[in-house]
Design goal:
- This protein is about 35% helix and about 25% strand.
- It is built from nine helices and ten strands.
- The strands form two sheets. Strands 6-7-8-3-9-10 form a six-stranded mixed sheet, with helices on both faces. Strands 2-1-4-5 form a four-stranded antiparallel sheet, with helices on one face.
- β7, α6 and β8 form a beta-alpha-beta unit.
Length: about 260
């Protein structure tokens, strides 16, 4: 595995009128790593990721992918760099089956200009089998699928086109324990394949179970980024609520 970060966001700024949604934010992500992004609503974490995904333009700062300066002005620019987003809503068309959802907007056509349903189903089955071998009812409408299966479709759609960087927004929200465990297994498998993941979550248990590092944001800035193994959940709560480093919360002097 390369020592070079898969993604670096350096000194990123974003303003909405007089509000600094992100101010001088720097964060990086290695291949095969999960970085958990934590903070209250309005902390800036979703805005930061929307700049990486091309939904918002940055007002300042630089983004690097594989060490090369990246210019991300649109979601298509991000996709061309291997960056895909899985939103909390999943953005699935409930009346369509898994292959149709996975290829929506990027359909495979026959030489006669019609949809190549067989090719799309074949490719969809290959990707989904890699993620979840027990998920076989992929030609049912996704509205009939479980929450875990719907997450599998959304993740499969993201990696179908060779995404190397995933932004996952609350992937286990509203899921039961079994389906949460299923999504956790999917994330661990993606890590093993070298995919880097930014995980936006309010669930500390998820973050500590799945993340290699945690980055806490407050009021548009980064409080700290720490290895998950080196902090406690209380440390992270202190950073989220008080905006203080773990050393300060423990009454110690923070290193300079």
């Amino acid at each position: 595995m390369s020592d070079k970060p898969l993604v670096e966001m350096r000194n990123i700024y974003k303003r909405f009128g007089g509000v600094h949604a992100c101010e001088d934010v720097s964060i990086d992500l290695m291949a095969g790593e999960v970085v958990g992004l934590l903070g209250h609503n309005g902390a800036g974490k979703s805005t930061l990721m929307k700049m990486l995904s091309g939904a918002y333009p940055a007002d300042g700062g630089e983004i690097y992918v594989d060490g090369e300066r990246a210019h991300i002005a649109t979601p298509r620019d991000a996709q061309d760099l291997g960056i895909e987003t899985i939103y909390q809503t999943l953005a699935l068309a409930d009346n369509l089956d898994a292959p149709a959802n996975m290829f929506l907007g990027r359909e495979i056509m026959t030489p006669f200009g019609t949809l190549n349903d067989d090719a799309m189903e074949r490719d969809a089955r290959q990707v989904i089998a890699r993620l979840n071998p027990n998920f076989t009812n992929i030609t049912d409408p996704v509205r009939t699928m479980s929450g875990g299966q719907r997450q599998s479709v959304a993740i499969a759609r993201a990696i179908l086109f060779n995404a190397r960087i995933l932004i996952m927004d609350e992937p286990t929200a509203a899921l039961g324990p079994h389906e949460t465990a299923m999504v956790a297994d999917l994330i661990k498998q993606l890590k093993a394949e070298g995919i880097g993941i930014f995980l936006i979550s309010h669930d500390l248990h998820d973050v500590f179970d799945l993340s290699d590092r945690v980055c806490v944001m407050k009021n548009g800035g980064v409080v700290a980024t720490r290895r998950t193994s080196e902090v406690t959940q209380d440390d992270v709560l202190g950073m989220i609520i008080m905006g203080k480093l773990p050393e300060e919360n423990r009454g110690e002097t923070a290193p300079t």
